[in-house]
């Protein structure tokens, strides 16, 4: 058996009421300590600058232009061309008053301008702050104020949202730079707020007229503040230093050296996951380090298959819930790629957290013994498990199980302007993931087996893991999605109820077989359909050997998926449970009254 990680420190029993903790595990490459970092790679700017020197004529950034009613072939900028544009944008920022440490917002879909703005920040010790409206209503307004952003690069179609009267903090901005060009009405509105408006070319011209030499950051300086959604409350600003980013890149180099199928300058990545999220950002930074190419999707996820066929990428990154939303044509296009060079990065492939700069554990692509795991700890990470007594998880048991805790060179510096949350997450020098329950397999790989977060207690004292049950019930054919809301933020209940999003095709099939007509919304009101859904959920529970108190006893049928427009899910499609509870509270109360015969 191949061993992928080793214990380098013994675990210990709990003291003074504190939970027991398991051994400290490291990647096999770091068993004698973390490898020495590359001395020429200490900041994000180092990575890009060196690649420009090595690969000036390589294709770097690609995009498709809309012409004559359709999107054309991919157009490309070389590393040298991008570098020259970065220098101009950086010079224009400095001429506009940006000083080292100034926060610069970037708001829009993935595109070459997004990367140019990011690298311009790296060139001048500016802090890049992605703005991400799908973090929830008001998130952009909150981040502008919380991060004290003075300068914003914005996609054309996002300008109106930035200038929306509800985005009250836009007036604190000094300037807005549009990815392409500003409409006259948007320009006038920007001026009325006493904010200077620029098209992309106007800003480049300013840089030409006011050249400024780069003044890169030090490794310990903040490189970016990435806001994450969480499931409630305001977004959290995760502070990542240049050392975090550079360590991530160095670690991937060490990791990739051990595979026969090497990454080369001929590799091509298609970018469609949000650059404002750490997963895509980390992948792109590594591609730039290797002198490879990145082509951006044209902005419509439903047309991704067309981009795939045009670009013919060798790498595709995604997460299961995203892949589920992509048209079948995408999957067909993936299958037609060269299988030797095709790599599909799935959530069982990497466990990625913003707080660990993208990588906490990494799987080996061709190692079947890692199937169903997230792999061993990352090269520059240490991992240990902490006891979760209420769920029966013991890091000193056989097998070792508990809440995953992490530390290392790629772990974030803290939450911006939130010392209380930082202290809560970073305890005893370890980052507590707050929810992921892991198991250490004999080969040293880590398997995610449960979630501590969203554990609720029923009135009879039994604990229920909501996410685990939703995963089990979600395989029921009549179910598209399910949210077990029940006792969450409510008075204690003795039984579970759920909101069930119906699978459209399977629901239509049931209706046809049982002589029912009408829209999906009309079908949701049928008692017969509710009874059928409950029967199917019970069958799923029986097959999966769930306990009696884990059975769903009542359902609210929903024709529409949980979506970001109603603020019911996060950007990564995790459920916002407090929002769901608020949305369905009236129906939940009615359902509980019915189930209890009118008694509370």
From TrEMBL:
Pathway(s): Phytoalexin biosynthesis; 3,4',5-trihydroxystilbene biosynthesis; 3,4',5-trihydroxystilbene from trans-4-coumarate: step 1/2
**A Gene Ontology molecular function term of the record:** long-chain fatty acid-CoA ligase activity
Task: Write one Pfam family the protein is assigned to.
Answer: AMP-binding
> Is the Ligase keyword given for this protein?
yes
Which keywords appear in this protein's UniProt record, sorted alphabetically?
Ligase, Phenylpropanoid metabolism
Indicate the segments forming the AMP-dependent synthetase/ligase domain, all copies. Answer: 51-328, 353-416
The name this protein carries in UniProt is AMP-dependent synthetase and ligase family protein
The reply on keyword Ligase is yes
One Gene Ontology cellular component annotation? membrane
One Gene Ontology BP term is:
phenylpropanoid metabolic process
Superkingdom is: Eukaryota
């Amino acid at each position: 058996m191949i061993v992928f990680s080793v214990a380098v420190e013994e675990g210990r029993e709990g003291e003074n009421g504190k939970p027991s903790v398991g051994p400290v595990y490291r990647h096999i490459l770091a068993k004698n300590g973390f490898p020495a970092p590359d001395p020429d790679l200490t900041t994000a700017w180092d990575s890009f600058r060196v690649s420009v020197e090595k690969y000036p004529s390589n294709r770097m950034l690609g995009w498709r232009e809309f012409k004559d009613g359709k999107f054309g072939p991919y157009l490309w900028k070389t590393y040298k061309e991008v570098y020259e544009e970065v220098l101009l944008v950086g010079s224009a920022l400095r001429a506009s008053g940006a000083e080292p440490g100034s926060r610069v917002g970037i708001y829009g879909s993935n595109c070459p301008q997004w990367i140019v703005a990011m690298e311009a920040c790296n060139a001048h010790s500016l802090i890049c702050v992605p703005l991400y409206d799908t973090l929830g209503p008001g998130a952009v307004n909150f981040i502008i104020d919380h991060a004290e952003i003075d300068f914003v690069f914005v996609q054309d179609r996002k300008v109106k949202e930035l200038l929306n009267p509800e985005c009250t903090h836009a007036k604190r901005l000094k300037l807005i730079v549009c990815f392409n060009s500003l409409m006259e009405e948007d320009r006038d509105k920007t001026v009325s707020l006493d904010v200077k408006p620029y098209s992309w070319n106007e800003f480049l011209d300013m840089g030409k007229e006011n050249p400024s030499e780069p003044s890169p950051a030090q490794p310990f300086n903040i490189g970016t503040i990435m806001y994450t959604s969480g499931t409630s409350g305001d977004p959290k600003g995760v502070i990542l230093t240049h050392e975090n980013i550079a360590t991530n890149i160095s670690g991937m180099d060490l990791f990739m050296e051990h595979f026969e199928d090497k990454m080369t300058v001929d590799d091509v990545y298609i970018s469609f996951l949000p650059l404002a999220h750490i997963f895509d950002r980390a992948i792109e930074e590594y591609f730039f380090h290797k002198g490879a190419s990145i082509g951006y999707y044209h902005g419509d996820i439903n047309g991704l298959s067309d981009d795939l066929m045009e670009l013919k990428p060798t790498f595709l990154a995604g997460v299961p819930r995203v892949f589920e939303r992509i048209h079948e044509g995408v999957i067909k296009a993936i299958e037609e790629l060269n299988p030797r060079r095709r790599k599909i990065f799935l959530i069982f492939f990497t466990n990625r957290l913003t707080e660990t700069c993208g990588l906490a554990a990494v799987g080996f692509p061709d190692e079947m013994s890692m199937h169903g795991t997230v792999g061993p700890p990352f090269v520059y990470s240490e991992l240990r498990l902490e006891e979760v007594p209420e769920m029966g998880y013991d890091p000193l048991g056989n097998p070792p199980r508990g809440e995953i805790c992490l530390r290392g060179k790629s772990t974030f510096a803290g939450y911006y302007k939130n010392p209380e949350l930082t202290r809560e997450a970073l305890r005893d020098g370890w980052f507590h993931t707050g929810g992921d329950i892991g198991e250490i397999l004999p080969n040293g790989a880590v398997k995610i087996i449960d979630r501590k977060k969203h554990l609720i207690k029923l009135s009879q004292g039994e604990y229920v893991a909501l996410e685990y049950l939703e995963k089990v019930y979600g395989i029921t054919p009549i179910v598209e999605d399910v949210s077990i809301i029940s006792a969450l933020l409510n008075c204690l209940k003795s039984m579970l109820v759920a909101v069930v999003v119906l699978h459209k095709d399977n629901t239509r099939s049931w209706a046809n077989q049982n002589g029912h007509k009408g829209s999906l919304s009309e079908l949701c009101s049928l008692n017969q359909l509710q009874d059928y859904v409950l029967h199917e959920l019970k069958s799923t529970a029986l097959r999966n050997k769930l306990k009696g108190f884990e059975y769903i006893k009542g359902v609210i049928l929903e024709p529409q998926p949980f979506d970001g427009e109603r603020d019911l899910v996060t950007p990564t499609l995790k459920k916002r449970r407090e929002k769901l509870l608020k949305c369905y509270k009236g129906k939940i109360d009615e359902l509980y009254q019915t189930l209890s015969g009118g008694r509370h």
